[in-house]
Amino acid sequence: MKKIILLLVSTFTLLLADAPSLKVVYDLTTQNQKDFERKILKAIVANKAYYEGKLQELDVTVVIHGGAYRYFTVDPSKTEYKTDKTLLANYTELKKRIKSMSDTYDVEFLMCEAGMLKHGLKAKDIVSYVKIIPNSTIGLIDRQNEGYAYIPVGD
After folding, report:
1. Domains of the chain with CATH codes
2. How far apart are CA 96 and CA 86, in angstroms?
3. Residues in Cβ contact with 89 at an 8 Å cutoff, skipping those fewer than 6 apart
4. 22 strand-pairing partners
5. What are phi and psi of 21, to 5 degrees?
6. What are the tens digits of pLDDT across the range 12-58?
7. Distance (Å, rounded) from C-alpha 19 to C-alpha 25?
8. DSSP letters spanning 18-50
């Protein structure tokens, strides 16, 4: 009986090792918080769960630029987003949910440095789990040439 279980576990492990990882890059530019929550926070969790149920891994990268910088600041009240009342009212909870995407769901976040500077943001203003890249185009080109499916999330 032990040999059969060991054989089944070994076979299952080999099958998982052969399954290619699925990959997606989200082109995140929306400043609309409801869209951000629905199309990023909820959708990524649902998509990861779906593929996990099919015994497949989903590798997710989010490239941040446009109106989306606001969700990744250490303290939006000290940035140009200080007048966004909806963001400020929900930011503590929102920040926890976004960090969970990085920690629990292994989502990679890449931020466009060129746009950051235009919005008066420096690296110290951005949460630590976000990797800053020279510009969003480089992140999108790199991921798409690595076989990532492209999904735009804009206004």
Report:
1. 19-153 (3.40.1260.10)
2. 16
3. none
4. 58
5. -75, 135
6. 555 555 667 899 999 999 999 999 999 999 999 999 999 999 999 99
7. 19
8. HSPPEEEEEEE----HHHHIIIIIIHHHHHHHH
Residue 13 parent element (H or E) = helix 2-18
Burial status of residue 119 (CB atoms within 10 A of its CB: 0-12, 13-18, 19 or more): middle
Which run of H or E residues covers position 121?
A: none
Determine the distance from the C-alpha atom of residue 150 to the mean position of all C-alpha atoms in its chain, rounded to a whole number.
13
d(CA 104, CA 113): 25
Q: How far is the C-alpha of 113 from the C-alpha of 132, rounded, in Å?
A: 6
CB atoms < 10 A from the CB of 43, how many?
A: 16
- How confident is the model over 94-149, as pLDDT tens digits? 999 999 999 999 999 999 999 999 999 999 999 999 999 999 999 999 999 999 99
pLDDT for 12:
54
Chain segment 88-105, per-residue pLDDT in tens: 999 999 999 999 999 999
**Sheet strands (E) in the chain:** 22-28, 58-64, 108-112, 130-133, 149-153
Distance (Å, whole) CA 8 – CA 93: 43
